[in-house]
């Protein structure tokens, strides 16, 4: 690993330790707790004819070792709200994995793949 990668990895560990919150991962009948940094932005874009379009993708950053085995459609509870993993987890190569989350409304298909 280069010096830069080592520094980024150390910074990531420090951020996780300082800003992480408890998270519960639900996989079937199994539940496990891990720590992660939760980012829940809201993006507004204006439309030239008037109005706004809102897009929101919440993200959870966890240590690679804690994120092992998490897959699309797994449920995650963060700050007493249940989310669903909507994209495959992405490791950044420095020891952190990004999980992209969507609001779980109970109506999502249990299948990862939808055929038309």
From TrEMBL:
Pfam families: Phage_attach. InterPro entries: Phage_Head-Tail_Connect_sf, Phage_tail_attach_FII. This is Uncharacterized protein. It comes from Vibrio olivae.
């Amino acid at each position: 690993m280069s010096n830069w990668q080592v520094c980024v990895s150390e910074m990531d560990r420090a951020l996780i330790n300082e800003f992480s919150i408890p998270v519960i991962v639900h996989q079937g009948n199994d539940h496990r707790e891990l720590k992660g940094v939760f980012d829940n932005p809201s993006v507004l874009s204006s439309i030239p004819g008037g109005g706004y379009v809102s897009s929101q993708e919440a993200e959870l950053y966890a240590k690679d070792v804690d994120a092992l085995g998490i897959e699309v459609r797994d449920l995650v509870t963060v700050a007493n709200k249940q989310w669903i993993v909507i994209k495959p987890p992405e490791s950044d190569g420095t020891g952190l994995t990004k999980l992209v989350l969507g609001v779980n409304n109970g109506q999502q298909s249990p299948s990862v793949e939808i055929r038309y």
